């Protein structure tokens, strides 16, 4: 057969196989090597028949316009030489199936109707800017090169249809395997049942800024890169769902193993049975990812070794649910799972083991915004050098529920950090265990809960910060701590400034074995609380005496506000008597533990006297009784004076002469008993007079008369003092001052 018109003479003569190929292409048939056909000669090596790449190129150029629209289709040939298709505009497709391609395939900025290398072996494909007006397939292909430019290089390529790489086995000892930065695929992109081995920091598979119009699937892959990332997909856009299933990826370096930052997914992201390792950097980097549907992470085994995190998801945005289940994430020198600043909807963690290191925490959700509830069940977080869970500033529009959660480690800044968190509805801890060998167990300064907060928690802390810290926290509903079990730390409860909108229910038996009863407590030094400024509406069904016992024996020192708060609660329920008992106990505690609050020793003694006789102003009836008793004692003194001889014929108290003066010569006239008692009362009254002294009075000219006068003066001074205290107590002045 003669060469077709315009073909290079170098292709003369055409082989039998090439002639058959030209004839098949003219009618749209696939040229297939039939090994059993004795009329077809083999190549020189006795293997596949040889088709020169120049023949394929000339066929695609179609100078005489005889090529069938179905294009050039070859199966089972050895393609010799470099196949150069650069800048060609071919409206037909090219299919090289199960072929051995000895040279390079170059198709930079070419246009072709379709391209398939399924089942073929090749050294390299260079196709930057290639446009495939149809589908492309590398299914079952084998590619191997030793060049830093990559094995398959398709930067800025555009495939209008589907791109299938299922079963592809590709390797590169000096660079990347698949370089597809900026590639556009109009339909689906499949990476399934693949084996990829590469080197270098450009990644084994690089699809950064690629745009996938349909679904993107990584399924049943093994990717290994001992000196860089396994996959780099920063800025990639996926119009449909994104799947990472049954995949094992091993990488190295600070760029991470799976680097997919700022990826946008129009559908769901499903990660299942994913194993990722990196001994010198992050394992998974999803920072800035945006998913318009769910992000589901199941059955993962993630191990990284970098201070920035093993599984990084900072600032991610998930429109629907974020689920992490049956997975383990570990990092020996940093955060295990970092979702700081994430914008999420419904969040659910179940059966997850998280192990990290450092002050940034093992699990980090600081500043995250959740539009729906957060649920964690059977989650274990471990950090021996920092917080296990760092959730400061998290905002949840819904319930916050932890069930069977365990947070263990050592951190001076708190094991579970919830400071500044905002929970719009209920917060519930059930069977939660928090242990910290160096500091606070639960650190929740400024926490806000929109409904009830149920604290079913076993907590162990250390140091002086408190086992459970809730300073400045606000619980709009009920705070229930009946299932709270506490160990360690100087203060088990650091609740200064806590505000509870409903009942406050405490585990009295947990803090004090005698259930918070008794005037003395042998366990006062074991568990201490700080509730200064704590405000609540009621104590529920608890006995006010239990809370009073805590204030007296377990508070860190004398604090007036907790007593005043308890008294106001009892007063609001109509128990004025209980309220007075609380306020009396407050003054007693002040005398015992706040002696420096008095001006001096005399003031302290006077305060004690006031408490003894008047109940610190809250027992005015007792003061009235004492006042009456002192007044009666004055009457008794007057009566005794009327029975005491001062000299012959005269008494210390007797009738006066008509002149109003006592006679030194005449015999004295005794006063009647009523007159003597009236004399004592008249003399003892601070104000007013009965007029009895004009008829019967003390004889101050005698020693006995002077002595009784001094006694009466002392009684009068006491009455002055008692009257003043009575008025002060009645007008509430003493209570306000105290």
From TrEMBL:
Q: Which domain of life is it from?
A: Bacteria
List UniProt keywords, sorted A-Z.
Membrane, Transmembrane, Transmembrane helix
Instruction: Give the transmembrane region(s).
Output: 602-618, 623-641, 710-733
> Mind telling me what this protein is named?
Membrane-associated oxidoreductase
Its source organism is: Lentzea kristufekii
């Amino acid at each position: 057969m003669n060469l077709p018109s315009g073909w290079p003479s170098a292709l003369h003569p055409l082989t039998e196989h090439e002639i058959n190929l030209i004839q098949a292409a003219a009618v749209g048939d696939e040229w297939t090597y039939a090994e059993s056909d004795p009329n077809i000669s083999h190549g020189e090596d006795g293997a596949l028949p040889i088709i020169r790449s120049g023949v394929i190129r000339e066929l695609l150029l179609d100078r005489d316009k005889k090529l069938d629209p179905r294009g050039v289709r070859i199966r089972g040939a050895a393609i010799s030489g470099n196949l150069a298709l650069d800048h060609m505009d071919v409206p037909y497709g090219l299919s090289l199936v199960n072929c051995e391609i000895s040279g390079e395939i170059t198709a930079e900025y070419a246009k072709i109707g379709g391209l398939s290398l399924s089942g073929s072996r090749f050294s390299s494909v260079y196709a930057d800017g290639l446009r495939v007006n149809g589908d492309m397939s590398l299914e079952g292909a084998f590619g191997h090169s030793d060049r830093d430019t990559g094995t398959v290089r398709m930067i800025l390529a555009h495939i209008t249809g589907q791109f299938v790489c299922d079963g592809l086995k590709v390797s590169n000892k000096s660079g990347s395997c698949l370089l597809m930065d900026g590639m556009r695929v109009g339909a689906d992109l499949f990476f399934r049942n693949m084996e990829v081995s590469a080197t270098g920091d450009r990644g084994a598979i690089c699809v950064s800024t690629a745009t996938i119009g349909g679904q993107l699937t990584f399924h049943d892959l093994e990717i290994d890169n001992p000196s860089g990332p396994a996959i780099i997909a920063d800025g990639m856009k996926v119009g449909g769902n994104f799947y990472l299933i049954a995949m094992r990826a091993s990488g190295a370096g600070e760029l991470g193993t799976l680097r997919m930052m700022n990826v946008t997914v129009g559908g769901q992201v499903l990660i299942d049975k994913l194993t990722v390792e990196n001994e010198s950097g992050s394992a998974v980097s999803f920072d800035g990812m945006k998913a318009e549907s769910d992000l589901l992470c199941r059955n993962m085994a993630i191990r990284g070794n970098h201070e920035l995190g093993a599984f990084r998801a900072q600032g991610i945005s998930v429109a629907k649910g974020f689920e992490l289940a049956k997975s383990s994430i570990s990092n020996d020198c940093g955060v295990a799972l970092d979702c700081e600043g994430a914008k999420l909807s419904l969040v659910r963690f179940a059966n997850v083991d998280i192990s990290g290191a450092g002050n940034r925490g093992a699990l980090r959700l600081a500043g995250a915004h959740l539009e729906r509830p957060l649920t964690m069940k059977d989650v274990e977080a471990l950090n021996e050098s920092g917080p296990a869970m760092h959730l400061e500033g998290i905002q949840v529009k819904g319930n916050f529920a932890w069930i069977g959660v365990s947070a263990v480690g050592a951190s001076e800044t708190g094991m579970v950090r919830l400071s500044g968190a905002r929970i719009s509805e209920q917060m519930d801890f059930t069977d939660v265990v928090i242990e910290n060998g160096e500091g606070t167990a639960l650190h929740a300064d400024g926490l806000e809960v929109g409904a009830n907060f149920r604290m079913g928690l076993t907590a162990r802390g250390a140091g002086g910060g408190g086992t459970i810290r809730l300073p400045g926290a606000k619980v709009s509903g009920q705070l229930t701590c009946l299932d709270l079990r506490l160990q360690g730390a100087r203060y088990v409860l650091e609740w200064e400034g806590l505000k509870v909108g409903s009942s406050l229910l405490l585990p009295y038996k947990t803090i004090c074995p005698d259930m918070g009863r008794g005037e003395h407590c042998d366990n006062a030094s074991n568990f201490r609380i700080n509730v200064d400024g704590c405000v609540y509406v009621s104590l529920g069904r608890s006995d006010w005496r239990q809370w009073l016992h805590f204030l007296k024996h377990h508070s860190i020192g004398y604090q007036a506000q907790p007593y005043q708060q308890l008294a106001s609660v009892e007063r609001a329920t109509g128990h004025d008597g209980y309220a007075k008992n609380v306020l009396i106990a407050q003054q007693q505690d002040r005398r015992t533990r706040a002696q420096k609050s008095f001006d001096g020793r005399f003031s302290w003694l006077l305060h004690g006297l006031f408490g003894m006789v008047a109940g610190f102003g809250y027992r005015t009836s007792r003061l009235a009784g004492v006042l009456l008793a002192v007044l009666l004692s004055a009457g008794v003194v007057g009566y005794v004076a009327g029975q005491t001889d001062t000299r012959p014929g005269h008494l210390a108290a007797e009738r006066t002469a008509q002149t109003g003066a006592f006679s030194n010569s005449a015999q004295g006239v005794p006063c009647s008993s009523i007159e003597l008692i009236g004399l004592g009362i008249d003399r003892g009254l601070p104000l007013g007079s009965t007029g009895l002294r004009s008829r019967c009075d003390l004889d101050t000219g005698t020693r006995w008369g002077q002595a009784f006068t001094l006694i009466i003066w002392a009684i009068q001074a006491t009455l002055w003092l008692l009257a003043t205290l009575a008025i002060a107590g009645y007008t509430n002045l003493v209570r306000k001052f105290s």
